[in-house]
Amino acid sequence: MAHYRVSESKREQFRRYLEKAGVLESLTNVLVALYEENEKPNNALDFIKHQLGVGPEAEDAESLRLELNTLQQKYDQLMEENKELRSRLLQYEPAQGEGTE
Predict the structure, then answer these.
(1) What letter would DSSP give residue 39?
(2) Is residue 98 part of a domain?
(3) Per the database entry, which stretches of residues form a coiled coil (predicted)?
(4) Domain limits at 59?
(5) Is residue 43 one of the residues assigned to a domain?
(6) Against a cut of 0.85, is the pTM above it?
(7) Are residue 31 and residue 60 in the same domain, yes or no?
């Protein structure tokens, strides 16, 4: 009987841990979404993984994050180059304007 109480106490601690971490709410939301689907998916586990952002879509997201980071760096480089070229161009524009008048 004492073993039952210890086990129940650990179970309750674990339940509170899951609740505090937001796991119960996330799982409940996913299961509700599955329940509310008009056409049930052939693979419920894939549906759950997709809803939680796990699986191939997560890999795609990581790939897109890396690409975004690379493109952001390239953008920053090009903006710096553009700024430098504009500065150099301004050195010559006034001189051209004075010579044509």
Answers:
(1) S
(2) no
(3) 61-88
(4) 55-93
(5) yes
(6) no
(7) no
Confidence bin at 84 (pLDDT 50/70/90): very high
Euclidean distance between CA atoms 66 and 64, whole angstroms: 5
pLDDT at 97: 54
Rounded Cα distance between 53 and 76, Å, is: 30
Residue 3 is assigned to a structural domain of this protein = no
Phi/psi at 38 (nearest 5 deg)? Answer: -65, -50
Return the SS3 of 72.
helix
End-to-end Cα separation, the chain, in angstroms: 104
Say whether both 42 and 60 belong to one domain. no
What letter would DSSP give residue 55? S
What does the pLDDT average to over 29-48?
A: 93
Amino acid sitting at position 18: L
Q: What is the mean pLDDT of the chain?
A: 86
